[in-house]
Write a structure and sequence with these properties.
mainly alpha, ion transport, proton transmembrane transporter activity, transport, ATP_synth_F0_gsu_mt, mitochondrion
Length: 122
């Protein structure tokens, strides 16, 4: 265990040295590459204005999202009514999607608990 800790410590030092040497250059390169997205002048007032614009734009997009949701729900109802036309491939895709959603919820629950597992310990 102590050997692994020492190995982890040396890796952390290597990463820290790399970031301290190359972090500034990476930051400048990133800003230069994305300068078309930077609003000038970068003031607190401008940030607050953009924040409000984002909030109200998202709020205005809710009716369109609701409409899309109801269209998707109607499509699912249509598939449910016409189960006889359902192919094995479509059923497999739906099953894989359901399995993936279940897995994401389980992983999200584990992350939400701080990467701890609950249950009986042997």
């Amino acid at each position: 265990m102590a050997a692994r800790l020492q190995q982890f410590r040396s890796k952390a030092v290597q990463v820290s040295n790399f970031v301290s040497k190359h972090g500034c250059a990476y930051y400048k390169e990133l800003l230069e590459k994305n300068k078309q997205h930077i609003v000038q002048p970068p003031t607190i007032e401008k940030c607050q204005e953009l924040s409000k614009q984002l909030f109200y734009t998202r709020l205005a997009s809710i009716p369109g999202r609701c409409e899309s949701f109801w269209k998707e729900l109607d499509a699912m109802k249509h598939i449910g009514r016409n189960r006889k036309d359902l192919t094995v491939e479509d059923a497999g895709i739906a099953a894989l999607f359901g399995l993936e959603m279940y897995a994401w919820f389980c992983v999200g629950e584990i992350i939400g608990r701080g990467f701890t597992f609950t249950g009986y310990y042997v």
